[in-house]
Design brief:
It contains 6 helices and no strands. With 128 residues, it is mainly alpha-helical.
């Protein structure tokens, strides 16, 4: 199978495969609310605005990338989005990208001081 975004979806690199899976899931949920089948390109456009940009903005604003200097940007993005998905599946209805970034930092930052800082910021801004 081929799309304009992915030349051969049967032979993708691991990160490309994870991205393709993100798009397929996003497309699935979008298609539930409309009467026609979206293309993967249309799903990519929506995913870029709804998932990619907000997560990368939150990573940047919270300087999470500075906590993990040896982790490539795309890998950190996937780690945060997996964590965000976990948080949403853990019974929480609304979880923002910023909350997911802060929670990820509170759990996985390499130093106790950083974990505490992210945890306090999350507690202060997202108390429920």
């Amino acid at each position: 199978m081929q799309t304009a975004l992915f030349k051969d979806v049967d032979h993708l690199e691991p990160r490309e495969a994870e991205l393709f899976q993100h798009l397929e899931v996003h497309k699935y949920f979008l298609n539930k609310d409309i009467p026609r089948e979206l293309t993967i390109e249309e799903a990519f456009d929506s995913w870029s605005r709804v998932v990619y940009a907000p997560v990368f903005t939150a990573i940047d604003e919270e300087a999470l990338d500075l906590e993990f200097p040896d982790v490539p940007e795309d890998e950190l993005f996937f780690r945060v989005t997996r964590h965000w998905h976990f948080m949403k599946d853990d019974g929480r209805i609304e979880v923002t990208p910023q909350e997911a970034v802060l929670d990820y930092g509170a759990r996985f930052a390499p130093t106790e001081e950083s974990r505490t800082s992210y945890g306090l910021k999350k507690l202060f801004f997202f108390s429920r």
